[in-house]
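Lest this sound abstract, we let one protein speak, letters for residues, whole numbers for local backbone shapes, and leave readers to judge:
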Amino acid sequence: MQTLLRSRLSFLVLRAAKPSIRPLITRIPLCQRRTYAKKAQSTSSLQPGSQQPLTKPTDIAEHEKCQEKMKSTVEWLRRDCADAAARASGRVTPALLSNVRVLGQKLEQVATVGVRDGSMLVVTVFEEDNLKHVEAAIYDAKIPSITPQRQDTRTLRIPVPKPTLDAKSSVVAAAGKKAEEARVQCRKLHQASLKKGKYEKRSVELEVFQDLLDKYVAEIDKILVDMKKTLGVSR
């Protein structure tokens, strides 16, 4: 009996000591999907507002109208400064009298203008009766250092002195005032177009019209700078 109990006990001890075989179950994590940051969109193809075209017919028409008026203002200043620079440069040419108007007509319609000895203008009228009108018109033009002198019943002599630096500076100063008048006129045209269009802040239309104004103001500045270089005036 004791032997049987020992055998039974030994069997239980051995069974308890023997490790149990259980299926090894490992949890395999699901593969996570790798994500990448989205590439930033390139802005190289984007256009600034001032380079984007206007789309509304009314805006396009107003832009063209404003541009034409600004262009006319700048061209007026360009011609005026060119004439003034020619007078102040010391070169004696018939262009010195280009602004003279005789009874509503251009000077060349009632007289011829020539150059003598490189320092004198000679004006010869077609009809003697017009001599007094031509003489008065030259005075009315208020051209600096230009004083007509009667030579005979049909001819005026106009000595042209060489301009001094002070005379050139005066011409540039007068041109500067006219340039400011041209800038003011362009700004008025710009404001009139904006008021008519009633555009929203930071809109494409505002940028387009501002770009137009900047363009012609820059042209005005360049006309004045070029005139100073031509006459050798630094201020």
